[in-house]
Write a structure and sequence with these properties.
about 220 residues, mainly alpha, 2 strands
Length: about 220
């Protein structure tokens, strides 16, 4: 299980690098109900990663196997990797150029009055439904199913990876409880920077994700 966890950590780090999700939770810390909203966002984020990864694991488990070895998982990983590379190219082409006016997503203007339920849903959207994290989570589930793990061991790895991936969300949540008043200016500047560079960062991360998934698929095929 430790080997599987070590293999999964690069994907966990890629999941954690979600600039717009981090910017969103930071914006919630500047809203009318920072603590309740940020905690709900964190819960939605981590639960969505667990569910999406479990879905990838279950899908891979019902695909054709040769004994205990999945013969479909490597090809599925390669397909997911190619999709990630295509999305990376689209993100990179759509990044703001110097001098462009930055258009904030419309929902960001409504975060100030966000409800706990809406924050939970938004966290789930960023955690397991946005393309980057959805591809990563499914790819992680598929790669775990291809390893010699019991269902219980796979579940433990999934939960640990989801927690690691959620650390950048957890840190602002902790800030909301211990030092929010002192750091509000810093948080606002960090949010603005992440929104400005979101497309370039996500494009780069998606490219890395694509390479990781394709390499995992190819190594499984030839291994």
């Amino acid at each position: 299980m430790l080997d599987a966890l070590a293999e999964s950590l690069p994907l966990a780090v890629a999941l954690a690098l979600s600039p717009l999700a981090i910017a969103s939770v930071v914006l919630m810390l500047l809203s009318a109900r920072p603590r309740a909203a940020s905690v709900a966002f964190f819960v939605g984020f981590i639960v969505a990663i667990v569910l999406a990864t479990a879905a990838g694991y279950l899908v891979a488990s019902v695909l054709p196997h040769q004994g205990e070895t999945s013969i479909s998982a490597p090809y599925l990983l390669i397909v997911l990797g190619v999709v990630a590379v295509v999305l990376a190219a689209r993100q990179w082409r759509g990044r703001p150029k110097k001098g462009d006016d930055l258009e904030l997503p419309g929902w960001m203007a409504k975060v100030d009055g966000i409800t706990t339920t809406s924050a939970l849903v938004l966290g789930a959207f960023f955690g397991g439904i946005k393309p980057k994290n959805l591809l990563l989570s499914i790819g992680l589930g598929v790669s775990l199913e291809a390893l010699a793990l019991s269902n219980g061991e796979a579940a433990i790895v999934i939960v640990i990876v989801a927690f690691v991936a959620s650390i950048p969300i957890l840190v602002p949540v902790i800030i909301a409880f211990v030092a929010l008043d002192r750091l509000s200016g810093t948080l606002d500047r960090m949010r603005a920077w992440m929104v400005q560079h979101n497309a370039a960062m996500v494009g780069t991360i998606l490219l890395i994700v694509g390479v990781l998934l394709i390499s995992k698929g190819v190594s499984t095929l030839v291994g």
